[in-house]
Each structure stands twice: as C-alpha cells, then as structure tokens.
Amino acid sequence: MNGTSAPSVDVVVLAGGTGGAKLARGMADAVAPERLAVIANTGDDVEIYGAHVSPDPDLVSFWLADLIDERGWGLQGDSFCVMDALRALGSDVWFNLGDRDLAWCLERARMISEDLSATAALQRLTASVGVRARVLPMSDDPVHTWVRAPAGWRSFQEFMIRERASGPIDGLEFRGAEQARPTEGVLAAIAQARAIVIGPSNPLASIAPILAVPGIREALTDADAPVVAVSPIVGGEVLKGPTAEFMAFAALELSARGVADFYGDLLDGIVTDETVSQRLATLQADTRMDDAPARARVAAETLAFAEALGG
After folding, report:
1. Which of 153, 166, 278, 304 has an alpha carbon 20 to 30 Å from 30's alpha carbon atom?
2. 1 located within any domain
3. What domain range includes position 165?
4. Separation CA 201–CA 208 (nearest Å)
5. Residue 213 lies inside a defined structural domain of this protein
6. CB-neighbour burial class of residue 135 (10 A; exposed 0-12, middle 13-18, buried 19+)
C-alpha cells in the first residue's frame, strides 16, 4: 500500500451511437479514464446467432480500447468467416458481425445465462481489453426501441439495417422501459458526478431510451452536477444516421435549438457551433471530432464549460 487510491468517478457521459462514443473517447484523454463513467443506451440490443449484441455499449467500449474499426463499428481488422459460412448455408444474414465481435457477444450471452447482470458481464469484457473507464448499460432490464415507418413497426436494428432507416417515421416506442430500473452503478455515477455530459447522439433514438428508464431523468434533475449537451447537429447537418428523420417525427427543428427544446429543463447548457438563445448557457465551439486531437479538444472544452456552470 502506498497510501494512494484510485480516483473516483466524477465525469459522466450519456452516449449512444458514434457521436457519443467519440466524445467518450475524447473525455478519456481529457481526464483520467478511471474518473469517467459512460451510461450507454441498450434500447438497440438484439439477440441473434445465439449471441447477445449490445451495439451502443460495445461501440463505446471498442472506442475506449482503441479497437474500433475504421468503418466506424466492430473490431479493428475483424474477419467475417462465420457470416460468410452462414450465408453459404442459406441463412438470412441481415445483421453483420465480425468473428471476434461475435465471440465477444457470445461470451456476454453465456455470462448472462449464468445469472451475471448485463453490467457485470460488460465489466468483465471491457476489463479484458484494458478499458479503465466504466461503461454502464442504462439498465440490466431489457428495453427495446421500436420504430414505425412506412414498412410498419420494426425493432430498431431491423429499421436501421433491413429498412435502411427509410422514413418518414411516425411512431417510436421504448418497450419494457416502464418496467426497467437503473442499476445502482448508474445512479451512483450520476450522484457523485461533478459534470454530466449528454453526448452528440441522436436525441430521440439514442438518449431518449436512457431517459425513459424510470429514475434516470429524476436522478439527473436532482444531481448537484450541471448537465450539458453537445449538439449532434454540426454545420447545420447531421454527420451520421437518421437524426433528421427522428427530429422531424418529434416536430423539432433540426438545429441546436431543436436539441435544446427536446431536453428542456434537464439542461444547464449546450455546446454547439450555432447561436442558440439567451435562455440557455451556450458554448459556441467547433464540435467536429474527426481525429484524436479534435475529440480531446471538444471533450476538454465541454468539461471546462460544465465545470464553470457548476461554479
């Protein structure tokens, strides 16, 4: 014993999708990774090929481990032999998983079948690849995002992959959310945070499922820490994914103002490259995160902004 102790978690990021994962990676450069907790959306989870796939927590984990593939998902340099073999056997392979990614998700399914929680299973997986930040599923209870578009109701993954996110969207449900509960780890991270950041994720599809779990919005509202959002609208555009379609469904302006309107009183401030309004504290900054220095810069500027709001 040398008399020192590991730093406690005091920076929390809510994340889903690529934008949130990139910010989480930048935040791990801006602060000691041990001080970071990422609360990740599990509404996109799917059980397939005998595996439990949790796309958003895994995306965050792979980014934090510097293992993300250049295509933006999955593990760097992964092969796809199992998917190719399934296709050769006549299987309908609509959800593509690399071989190592599949192994990761099969191991999660095995651990959950042996009564480990989703949180505990992910902790073991992230430890195996050297992630020092805490990646926390929003709940250990199942929540599934469903989307209604011209093809009818579809699970989120089917909507995104089978239907190629073809809108317009006229229905959105987080099935199971009312029965779900946040884990003790999620609530503890929020309670002890000095800064809480909502990542530049799709507000409706990636962050709303987290907020739909009873107790999480209340915990964020009651937290001593300021809550700031990084807008996913950059240069007036959505860089990736169907955020525009989801914002249109919610009758929200495709702008930082629309993002702020969605989060409402939950926010103490917003980070954006636009001018928002006088009613909400705003950090106007370049929010592109095309490389590691940019990710670290956006994270550091966002954290400094949040800390200033916290006094």
Report:
1. 278
2. no
3. 11-309
4. 10
5. yes
6. buried
Structure tokens at 106: 């099969």
119-177 confidence digits (pLDDT tens): 999 999 999 999 999 999 999 999 999 999 998 999 999 999 999 998 899 999 999 99
Q: Which amino acid is at 30?
A: A
In a domain, 4, yes or no: no
Could you tell me if 190 and 223 are in contact, meaning their C-beta atoms sit under 8 angstroms apart?
A: yes
Residue 118: CATH number of its domain: 3.40.50.10680
Amino acid 27 reads M
The CA-based dihedral angle spanning residues 218, 221, 222, 223, taken in that order and rounded to the nearest 10 degrees: 120
- Give the pTM: 0.95
Q: Are 42 and 118 a contacting pair, CB within 8 Å? A: yes
The answer to the question of residue 299 being in a domain is yes
Number of domains in the chain: 1
Distance CA 50, CA 71 (A): 25
